[in-house]
Amino acid sequence: MKPLPEKFVRALKVPVFLLCLGPAFVLTWKGFHDGLGANPIDIITRTTGRWTLTFLLITLSVTPVRKLSGLTWLIRFRRMLGLFAFFYGSLHLMTYVWLDKFFNVHEMLHDIAKRRFITAGMTAWFLMLPLALTSTTGWIRRMGGKRWQKLHRLIYFSAAAGVVHFIWLVKADLRRPFTYGAILAALLAYRVIAWLILRARARRTMAGQQIARA
Amino acid sequence: MLIKKPGDIPSSEITPKQSYLTRRKFITGAAAAGAALAGGLYLREHLDTENTVHAQGQKLNGIVKSPLSTSETPTSFKDITNYNNYYEFSTDKYEPNGLSKNFRARPWTVAIDGMVKKPKKLDIDAIMKLAPLEERIYRHRCVEGWSMVIPWVGFPLSALIKAADPLPSAKFVALQTIVAPDQMPNQKRSGVLDWPYVEGLRMDEAMHPLAIMAVGLYDEVLPNVDGAPLRLVVPWKYGFKGIKAIVKISFTDSMPPTTWNKMAANEYGFYSNVNPQKDHPRWSQASERRIGEFRKRPTLMFNGYADQVASLYSGMDLQKNY
Q1: Mean local confidence (pLDDT), B140-151
Q2: Is the ipTM of this complex over 0.95?
Q3: Domain match, B235 and B167 both
Q4: FRET pair for A111, CA 20 to 30 Å: which of A164, B24, B179, B192?
């Protein structure tokens, strides 16, 4: 497939960026217009949490969609989408640290140690942190593509921890967390299958080369 | 500069005062006639079967104030009815209000059985006359960590138990919610909770003057979303003990099963007394967010009713009997 012209990709980044900001904008607008219901902090926590997971899954679907559809230019949006996952994850964490715990460090440490769903959530955020910090082109160059890519596989574990965090906090009716879990499983399964196919192909080529040599 | 003056409203457009007054009168008259007609039809349908009709939103009369009420400011009607766990309708707290609008809370009977002198069925209108209706403004603490102040209208559960006439050997009272999957969407699905919802109290808890059967809220007939027509309120326990839309009350001599305890026994005990020292495995119970307030406030032992109810549990290890 013909690659999209550079100018078009750049122009497309603006609306995509604004669209990604949409959930934060809606939340803020509702906040100023009495639209967050009886327990605003609960709504803010749940909304930012859900969008963190959603952006993690969107980010993880860039590669499969790109490979399967041939739309190679999609890769140009992956960093932005990943950073939005980190953005919503940080808002989610800030809601907990500020609005819920009011910077009570003692209580938070107690929570992290004792409540497994908080432990899982914190793990998910901390796994995203190095990815956000090394997301620049400069860092890719400094680390080298191979090492950078290896580090950025942490996103698999971050997304898994996020889904577990969601499953563990729900009281009953696990449909929503399981939906996220199923999509994540499919996205990771794609990678395993792609890797297996690649390995099989490499073996065949190697065997072919050996036959040719003999 | 030339500014065009807006033209005056032509006199032909102005409705003469007399004529619009008559128009209003006509509309009011028509509305009144319509209401009377509708009312008449309604009465014709209901008059011979019931002498009192309690529709949602209707004012309840003869409510007396209670010294057991708190003086704290009640949470708004809007928040009480729009932020509420009622899993039969939805697991989302914002949805049950809309989904329960057409729930049929009348006619309604409650079956009394188990260890009683004589099993019977009581009509809701008869139940509402068992004792004078009282306003009971209670703190309400949800196990999830939020709280409200709710002006219930109801009567002591003890009055209903006396009417049920249990045998002296009865040690527990078990209560059950209606099964109506055609009206309660989540009862059609598996994987939410075991239906019907069941709850229970030890007899001495049930006879405590603070334990009430609520039939109203804010001086009105209990809204469907809050468990119409009849729900339990036990203010020193977590909110989920307050079983809604009760159709059966049984008396037994063994501890009855309770829905959330069956779901996760390590998280929800039979007693489920509000206890800031006993954490829920997944979150602390030391503090709570009062709906409408920003900062959390400390949770009080037995939700602030320790003076009245602590003696019920003297000698019991509340870390074990949670």
Answers
A1: 96
A2: no
A3: yes
A4: B192
